[in-house]
Amino acid sequence: DAGRLVPWDDEIHRALVIIRNPMHAIPSFFNHIYEMKNHLPVHSQRAPVDAWIEWRDRLAAIQISRFEKFVDYWMERFSQLNDNRIFVSYERLTGDETGAEEAIRITRFLGQSEGVTPIDVESVPCVWKSVVKYKESLKATNNENMEQQRRRLDPMHHDSQRSGPTERPYTPELLSSMSDMLLNLIGKWGDRHLRLRKVLEGYQKDVEAAYLLTAGDNDAAMASLGGALPAEQPPQQKN
């Protein structure tokens, strides 16, 4: 929740900041709220579409603003100490082709922290796959012990594959606001942090394509995505 600092904020000397495309992060946050309000297990159930629409119309604009404040805070917080703060893209961290590479980045960053002894870099891809891609491993090997191994590696891990409807429609106005917010962040911080710029530009491209789809301009949406037009609606979020 952007804007609320922990009492020990001044003791944070290094930060690993994970960001996710707000078009998907905001519905995922709402699903979490829905689970808490209905006393459901974490990462177990997506909210009904009508519940999303009611919440979206009241609060999504606030969450878009908070996303910008979140990025601003972590850029300003370490304005002169970029080596002590890294941004990690959720999409890259969970991606089949990029996840292990991002996990290695995290390992090396943590290894520079006092009192932290990370695992060997050579072991990171295997651990990443066991924790993040454990379902694929279970299906590929049909090995019941894999689930026990995952729990040992990460006992607090929750299944992120929620059940329920994946449709999370936005209004054109919200998508336009989200696109403008991302462009504003790129303008403020892009020259200072090229990796963050690339991530935000990818997000803005996806949001812009979703906006064009809601406006009925399929050709422009396809061009925006380089020809990879989603089937009937903006990309759906799985959790």
Radius of gyration based on Cα positions:
19 Å
- Return the average pLDDT rounded to an integer: 84
> What is the spatial order of strands in the main beta sheet?
1-2
Q: Helical proportion?
A: 55-70%
Stretches where pLDDT is under 50 for at least 5 consecutive residues are: 146-159, 231-236
Structural class: mainly alpha
Order of helices and strands: EHHEHHHHHHHH
Strand count, sense and barrel status of the largest sheet are: 2 strands, parallel
Notes on the structure:
The protein contains ten helices and two strands; from the N terminus they run E-H-H-E-H-H-H-H-H-H-H-H. The chain is mostly helical. It has a two-stranded parallel sheet with strand order 1-2. The radius of gyration is 19 Å and the shape is globular. Residues 146-159 and 231-236 have low confidence and may be disordered.
